[in-house]
Design brief:
The chain has 218 residues and is α/β, with parallel strands linked by helices. The chain has one domain: Maf protein (Alpha-Beta Complex). Helices cover 37% and strands 23% of the residues. Strands 1, 2, 3, 4, 5, 6 and 7 form a seven-stranded mixed sheet that branches. Helix 4 runs antiparallel to helix 5. The longest helix is centred in the N-terminal third of the chain and has 20 residues. The two termini are 16 Å apart.
């Protein structure tokens, strides 16, 4: 079995992997996202949202991979996966709200409209004799309900919108406020299983290589 190290503390990403039979190791990258994007803007100009999430996913995966290579007891057969999500609305990218007031303002602009949730994925292959590093972005159109001010205030008061990119979830309290999705549901949750499968195939692996033994035992 190949081990997967998830460079994220996101419970939703971990739950998505577990639902697909993968029990990941977890290590938070600690990457300064603003600094990464600022550095890229100086070199290449302002990035589009789809490119920004891919760059951030790469930075997270590589930071954790560098630490993992020097850790005693780390599995030899190891892949590192970094992910990052941003919501694109009116040409602007939105991550986690700065505070409750920001979340309320965000939802007043989002309600009754649609945005694109971009999730970048980056895999670093640390298996002996391998040196693969590869990434891809999942982009999904999300339609939002036309919430009342009272609904927005109540939702923000729960604290959930402050913890997630785009200030909403589709698999939590925010689920009733998403009226439709065009694209990959898991990409909106924060980790696209089809994208992960495609990346694994390009590295000569399959999802079955990541399945935990307890999920394959008779």
């Amino acid at each position: 079995m190949t081990s997967l190290l998830l460079a994220s503390a996101s419970p939703a990403r971990r739950a998505t992997l577990r639902s697909a039979g993968v029990e990941p190791l977890v290590e938070v990258s600690g990457v300064d996202e603003d600094a990464v994007l600022a550095s890229a803007a100086e070199r290449f100009g302002v990035l589009g949202t789809a490119d920004a999430v891919l760059l951030l996913a790469q930075a997270k995966a590589q930071a954790v991979a560098e630490r993992a290579e020097g850790l005693d007891g780390a599995p030899d057969d190891l892949l590192v996966l970094g992910c990052d999500s941003l919501l694109e609305l009116d040409g602007s990218a939105y991550g986690k709200p700065a505070d409750a007031a920001d979340a309320v303002d965000r939802w007043r602009r989002m309600r009754g409209r649609s945005g694109v949730l971009h999730t970048g994925h980056w895999l670093v292959d640390l298996r002996p004799g391998e040196a693969g590093t590869i990434g891809a972005t999942s982009s999904t159109l999300v339609h939002f309900a036309d919430l009342s001010d009272a609904e927005i205030d109540a939702y923000v008061a729960t604290g959930e919108p402050l913890e997630v990119a785009g200030a909403f979830t589709v698999d939590g309290l925010g689920g009733p406020f998403v009226t439709g999705i065009e694209g990959d549901h898991h990409g909106v949750v924060g980790l696209s299983l089809p994208v992960l499968r495609d990346l694994l195939v390009q590295l000569g692996l399959t999802m079955a290589d990541l399945w935990s033994p307890r999920d394959t035992a008779g």
